[in-house]
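## Example record

The block below lists the input lines for one assembly entry, exactly as stored, with component labels intact.
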Amino acid sequence: MLLDVHGLKKGFPGSERQITVLDGVSLSLDVGEVVALTGESGSGKSTLLHIIAGLEPTDDGSVLFDGEDICVMDDGGRAALRRNSISIVFQQFNLIPSLNVRQNLVFHARLAGRAASVDLPALAMSLGLADHLEKFPEDLSGGEQQRVAIGRAVASEPKLVLADEPTGNLDEGTGQAVFDLLLSLARRTGAALLIATHSMRLAEAADRRMHLSHGKLTE
Amino acid sequence: MIGPVLTALLSHWRRRPFQLATLLLGLSLATALWSGVQAINAEARKSYAEAASILGGGGLSELVRTDGGMIPVKTYATLRRAGWLVSPLVDGWLSAEDGRIRLLGMDPFTVPQDTSIAAAVESSLYPELVGKNGVLLANPATAARLPDLEDRLRVIEDLAPNIVLADITTAQELLAMTGFNRMFLAPDQPLLRPNLASVAPELAIKPPATANDLGRLTDSFHLNLTAFGLLSFAVGLAIVHGSVGLAFEQRRPVLRTLRALGVSAHRIVLCLIFELLTLALVGGALGIIVGYVMAAALLPDVAASLRGLYGATVNDALTLSPFWWLGGVGIACIGTAVAAANGLWRIARMPPLSPARPRAWIMASNRAMRWQAGGAAICLAAALIAVTFGGGLVSGFVLVGGFITAAALFLPMVLSSLIAVAARQSRGPIGQWFWADTRQQLPGLSLALMALLLALAANVGVGTMVASFRATFSGWLDQRLVSDLYVTVEDEADIPAFMAFLEDKSDAVLPIWHVDAEVMGAPAEIYGVVDHPIYAANWPLLSSLPDTWNRIAEGTGALVNEQLARREGLSLEDRLPLPGGWTTTVVGIYSDYGNPLGQVVLPLGELTRNYPDVDRSDFGILVPEQNKEALTAALTKEFGLPKDRITDQGVIKEFSLAVFERTFAVTGALNILTLAVAGVAILTSLLTLASMRLPQLAPAWALGLTRTTLGRLELIRALVLAALTFTFALPVGLVLAWMLLAIINVEAFGWRLPMHLFPLDWAWLGALSLGAAGLASIWPAYQLARRPPADLARVFSHER
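Predicted structure tokens for the full assembly:
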């Protein structure tokens, strides 16, 4: 098992009382598995992904990745995990605006020390970005920027890709194309994929679907 | 892993070259002004050290007469015969172009080898040095000021400035002296020698100087310069703080992405420190170069200031040590660290998913304003405590620093209140939007406006002080220079004939005879005056007993200058001990601006009776204006006096005022530079804000305001803010001027000046600040007016 989340709890202080977002959430993911995570806005999908990525602390529970508990790691350990084994695709793309497409694509792989194994022309071709390599993010459309973000995520050869509503900022057609691309690249590289989405239609393409509501996760 | 992180961070600057230029400009300006001032100070202190080393005998004790008089040759001989290893020294002043030069006469054969004098003179020069018409030794700059002695001068590169060395006989001949001023005491004396009291009871051992008197005397001037440097440094840092803080906020998305991609906060902070260090080194290096050029340009004026105010001589050329260069780099790094500390701290503590809020960063919160007000109150309290309980120059500077910092910290609150009042008064929608938007802009501009306030207040304060000084000095010169012609006779033997010649050709001849001596332990000048009504009518007395001039004429009192009175705490009717072991009564205190030395005025008879060696060569002559030219010609013909020995009163006034202007040229230059830096701070703030203002401007544009109107309003806003800042800076500057005149000047120079007001100067400064703000805002306003509509429209779309 690649990922084993158990009894995860997370709350945020509200104006009057504590708001519980995750209330004993458990889930598991195998190597190469694609799981869709659905739920209303504000249901805690992003929070769950952020905790798995080690970007946010948890109130209770454990997150075992490859047998190691992310929740007890220090900042350096969690950073090393993201650098080497987990990639994240955000709704807002989060590219580095001052680097061009070529540099953005290999950036995560360089951090992981795997830049040498990146076949950039083939990757750019598969992303449909071969003609945009020298452009900067501000010169690209939203769909193109998200394709760069996906390319950056898979180029570092992670074991797990976390995608936080990667099509949320895109129109339906572009969103579908981006999702297909993400799915195909994940399957091709053998990375597991946990994707948070509003779209039931996109979720149906996953191996498994999970729904988060009122802090509880159901399959 | 460091490589890609640095690439990502540094690429920000490649995409924003203007922001990078702003940061480097701020850093280099801050470093330049600071290190330039330090270079000037270092050069001056080096000159003092060289002079002190020569004058003070390099740490040797000296024998001096307890009554301050000359030591006869006989006493010297007695001491030597008794086994005392002493070496005589003659110390006096030579008249030179642009002031006077210290002449030291020593005996090369007995001078202890440990002294700087011995080290300065190579033994190969001894044959030329001793004997009749012996040579004089001086550095090139000093030698150039003594054209009359050109044939006898030998140039020694490393000799201290403003000092001429000679054999003791030569010095006695040139100074018309007999005897010696003091004697060096060799460090190793024979054990079995009679004690001093039995051989020469009139002498005392003076221990080696523990500190550099000249350095101490001029500390206030250097502190003044340092304060100016610090002010400019603070203004420069305002630019750096703005640029660095904004760059951090703009890169928050990048930092967040880096964290998401597996870079730890610790590593990001390290990379940012590396980036800042690199920028500090580049900016610091540029600043040091600019600072060097600035210091080299200002040094001649500073040297003139030091000569005019303290009689201190400083080399005109910079010779800087590696420590100065390292200091410049160090201050650039420290400045960058100070300016970036807050930003770095926030990044180190930033949660990985912290949203980027560059506008929120620019829009300082009310809480920040409250903090600022608290800081202002603390500064004000420190200033009040300093003035209430402290004393001396340092307390004065704490008062000035605390007050001006408090004023700067209060500025945003003051402006916010004024804008709120204006907003309430405005009627039309555009006016309402304009004031509301101005108030919202205020936090982003406040740092630059505070820098402008500091520069303007310093300008008003220092400008008022200098102009008050100028007005007082000019009036004082008119009073003090009572004679119409000033003559220096070549040979004192000519004096009887000279007096007889002038008896029927002038209204009066007023001897200006004086002697240099130590009064109450410090160098001073003692002058003698004849009994003439012109003194009572013109001499500017600050305080006096009734019948002052009669008392002087009767020989029952003396006048002292303000400096001596303040230094020694002398009041009217106090007893004044004078060299030679006699005392007199202080019957008046007179203003004596620009003189570094204490001065005493005695009746001429008292002077010559107590000090027979008095210099008798100078005279003032009262003569009707129409006869001046004829008398000058007659004196030249009769006594062969060259033209430079007969000086018209007007020429002296002109020269004195020219020296005055040069003295304060450096202050004026630093004033302008600080104002220029503040102008740059406004420009950079406006340009920085311009890139983030579209969300505020786009709605107004969409509602029907043209881009040209928006641009015009931006220009007006800058002018309004500058005008309001100037309005606040004016009273702050006037209070500052009062502090400088009534507290700092008294502590630093020993004289208090009346404060004059110069509304025309304020009008000029106001116009200048509006001009600077206008110039600073023209480019951002023009850019806004020319902004493509698509840029404004994009604000309303969520994606491209």
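The radius of gyration of chain B is 33 Å. The first strand of chain B starts at residue 62 and ends at 65.
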